[in-house]
Fold each of these.
Amino acid sequence: MQGEAAHVSNGQAHPAPSSALEIADELSRAFAATAVERDRRGGTPNEERDRLRRSGLLSLSVPADLGGWGAPWPVVLEAVRRIARADSAIAHVFGFHHLMLATLRLFGSAGQASRLQADTVAKRWFWGNALNPLDTRARLVRRGDALVVRGAKSFCSGASDSDMLIVSAIDDATSRLVVAAVPTGRPGIRVLGDWDNMGQRQTDSGTVELDDVEVRADELLTTPGPLGSTFASLRPCLAQLVLVNVYLGIAEGALEEARRYTRARRRPWIAARGTPATEDPYVLLRYGDMWLGLEAARLLADRAGAAFLAAWEEGDRLSPEQRGACAIAIAAAKVATSRAGLEITNGMFEVMGASATTADAGMDRFWRNLRTHTLHDPVDYKSRELGAYALNGAIPEPSFYS
């Protein structure tokens, strides 16, 4: 991509956040050109991940005094959304990269976060995820004076082609969850290419095997540790908000693809009696419904992003009540984007017609990607949280999924 190098931190101030979104749009257009073919192929999108490295956007959330852009979270999330319009798999691993960087700040000490974020900028690190609290196979054990992790982790999105990993394990001595930041290339780490699901095919969300992987004491994120404070419990809120924007980007991309297809290729239905497809009342009705659902979801997503930023800026002053209000705003956006997205990625075929179902068109990827992702965190539980809040004023208890 022309001009990519100019965006990389080189000791000079980064451009304004609006420039970051222009770069995200540029990347999105480039990714769109190969999205259908890469979706069929699966595997690791090495070239596209390298484009992200060169773009400088991997340092978007890093504070400016550490060499990053210092962009506020709504800008970071908007960049995720714009990339997801073209390629939700790359948007997912890009968003989770920034989630891993936030994990350093939320679970670790100020010194750990500063050092690792500065290194991320200087070395163009891409962070991957091996933190899956539901998978307890990985154990932290003592081997003499050393700490090692042995076992495996599933759903390790972005682990392939990553430079650093956030890894979780159960401490054999205390039975508590521990989290560490380790280099992906450390001996004993084996990233498997076993992700073969119907959607999000280039997220590499498969298995990471850990064979007596050494973990240094200064790599453990223990101050305050996983969910160790009210502020630390914002980590699952950010994880949910990244997914909200991935879902919203998928829906926006799907609706735009449908619009282009209907305007250029949709033949009028025989019963429409000569009415062009773009004026068919039933086609217009469906577009109106899809647009309305998407617009409502977009407004809720933006409100949730603003709520998260306000909570983030409170830092250690964050109260449980403030955290709860943030979680409710994000839950509302999660439900709305899931529902609107599934409605659009299914209903788009009604306004495009049978010719849009050809394999070459690849239109099914929008539904497959969204359906695969939404099943990993059942939205009914978010609706239940909203019901408990609406009826009883109850705010969600912090967990890794709320």
Amino acid sequence: MKRNAWAAGLLMFLAGSAVAQPALREATFGTNWLAQAEHGGYYQALADGTYEKYGLKVTIVPGGPRANNRMLMSVGKLDFYMGGSLIQAFSAVEKNIPTLVVAAHFQKDPQVLMSHPGNGLDTFDDLKKSNDILLSKDGSATFFQWMKAEFGFRDEQVKPYGFSPAPFIANSRSVQQGYVTSDPLVIEKTAGFKPNVFLLADHGFSTYSTTVETRRDVAEKDADLVQRFVDASTIGWYNYLYRDNAKGNALIKRDNPEMTDEILSYAVAKMKEHGIADSGDAQKHGIGAMSDERMKDFFDKMVKAGLFKADLDYTKAYTLRFVNKGVGLELKK
């Protein structure tokens, strides 16, 4: 009888302990495109239980051609959003949209220009000789304006880019935009040659990328949620880049069945080779790091390029409150 009573008491104790465990806090995170390696840190944190360790039940909402996750975050339908360059964040200030960049998981924007080797377009400065620079409307309105202001490129050089490599492959004097993590591989596999690749970040396009944005009221009233999400995501990025990322890749392929192991492996290698996530301030302060100096540098360049007026209070676009804490640095070792 005593043994049965002891067992019953143990069961009651365990049941009470289970009830006492705090419930996971739900959080939604919208990406800006279909699942890919460039989102790997977030998928890794979800797949390996890092978000749960931080008390979060995270739902990743993939972006895509028909999605507008940034708007959904802005109106309160999502808690966090994966931004692109800082141009979006500065534009939000200009339009009085109360959003805030709370982390930047890419120190470098993966944006590149590509050219055919051996055709007189083998340096970045050579690209000014091409009369067929294939750019999207967004590229023409953003980084190409900086290229004009900084290097003397001209509007008449631009031709529309329809997101097909065929025109670039067919014209050896053409230049095409792309991402260092994917498009050079597409050209190599489709056309059989390795293109010249010019990473704009290495030529002064100093924006952060793959940012974490939230609404200003969330950052102010629920700072603990923001801190936990930023820290867990940062750890996810270290684990994705430097440890076994198989679980993260499995979730990426679940959300984007067209993604292949070859593309994922190539993207991770290029992110590491070029220091996309882990370079500059991130090597000292941790992935996700940001600085006032870097923000001012990029804003000043965008003012010079004519994208913003000099009196815009760009400092309202971001906060350093949640970064530069060295989170995850030990995982790289």
Amino acid sequence: MLLVPAIVLSLLVSGSAAGAAVPPASVINADFPDPDVLQVDGTYYAYSTSSWAGRVPVASAPSPSGPWTVRGDALPIRPSWAGNGGFWAPDVSRRGDGRFLMYFTGPSTATGRMCIGAATSTSPTGPFTATSGAPLVCDAAEGGDIDPSSFVDTNGARYLLYKNDGNAVGRPAIVWLQQVQADGVTFIGGRTELIRNDRPEEAGVIEAPVLVRRASQYVLFYSGGSYGGNTYFTSYAVSPSIRGGYTKAFRPLMTTATVNGAVQGPGGADVHPNRIFFHGWVGNARWMYVAELGWANDFPIVRGSRVRYEAERGAINHAEVRTGVPGASQNAVVAKLDYADSWVDITVYAPGAGNYTAYVRYAAGYGDAQHTVTVNGGTQLVLTYPNTGWENWSEAGLDVTLNPGWNTLRFQYRARWAELDQVELA
């Protein structure tokens, strides 16, 4: 990786001088669940699960941060195959012929399950009209099918992603990939399984797939857990090829905890190159949020959501790595940071320039310890570690100003003694 030091004068200050980190921002402060966002000719359009605003509410804004205005119902005429009830998680894309294609989930009168339909319009605000008198995907035996999304690869191939609603009938929840023709509704060949629920934190549920292609890999975003509370989360899986195999991230991308409680249950996400849109619970509604999105070696990082960097993987001088440490992340820490030339460099990624908070996990056992923290070889800060006892891991926060991209934080001995476990940046 290429590190570009900030060209600044060295300044030693104590405490958190950079200002608070930037949390995700709520941009539609009303019920607007499972947002899907489309940019057309400089205007952003967002679509959501059924709410007070209609069967498929549509909103527009001049920029991702708004101001957003809810325009009404993009699907005012109920498709003939669907009954009354909520319509879930729409996806809108533009086809090569210029028409707008909407995938949606609706209640099938024939099966009693939620199924996937399609509709088209000449305008991103609608009205959209169903393309058929039957669902596009509807298999009651697998629990029905929900959460469709579109993906067009760099070679022009178009795909539909969706989830069979297995958790509704005690079966596996699986994310599927189906290639389609340019019209988005004519299938090519069979479907391919990408991922399924197989982790405890998913609570039997994975859903809301969104696929992105980066230079080195495909990145499949998804949500897991129960959508109806603060255990809902957003994560991702990666693969060198579109059909897999996909490897899930070791830790979720966004949880209630990683955003420090700023959003409850961040999920139902849609992804743009440098922004991620998602919903979170506020009272009995799910508001729409937006956050800055960065790509560290083609892996996603959301500004305002903690990313963990293990101290023992940093560059170490006149110190050592201690392993088999009870209670430490990955069972290892940097120890013996005891001398004037003892330091560890930890490289972190910032999606955009500005203020961040470094949450440093440490242990100090002989009085309050201090490190001098140098940012990109320039600005210096003093971080104090209150004495909490050896192997009693605690957290100290430090606000820092970072450049977009990779940055280096140097933690150097200053006073007394502390061991470092990890740094989480948000």
